[in-house]
Design a protein that fits this description.
By secondary structure, the protein is an alpha/beta fold. It contains two helices and five strands. The strands form two sheets. It has a three-stranded mixed β-sheet. A two-stranded parallel sheet has the order 2-5. The radius of gyration is 16 Å and the shape is globular. The N and C termini lie far apart (41 Å).
């Protein structure tokens, strides 16, 4: 079960927002897996399957995380 929390609600805006979803969230695809999405305030959230969130929000799969490599590691890989 994922405990991801999306800070801005993906629905209910006067204009269509572009929704970006990290492909790693799609690994949670069993019947008991879900992500948490904001529903307008800090106290309101809803659970939704990542594939459903992608579909109903017309989301775009985008790699959102970054991997930082220490300079020394980068240099040693180049050697």
């Amino acid at each position: 079960m994922s405990k991801t929390n999306i800070d801005v609600p993906p629905f209910g805006h006067s204009t269509q927002l572009r929704i970006f979803i990290d492909p790693d969230s799609l690994q949670y695809d069993t019947v008991n897996d879900f992500v948490w999405a904001a529903a307008g305030t800090l106290n309101y959230n809803f659970a939704i399957a990542p594939k459903d969130l992608l579909r109903v929000s017309n989301g775009v799969l985008t790699h959102l995380k970054r991997m930082y490599v220490r300079r020394s590691q980068r240099i040693s890989r180049l050697s």
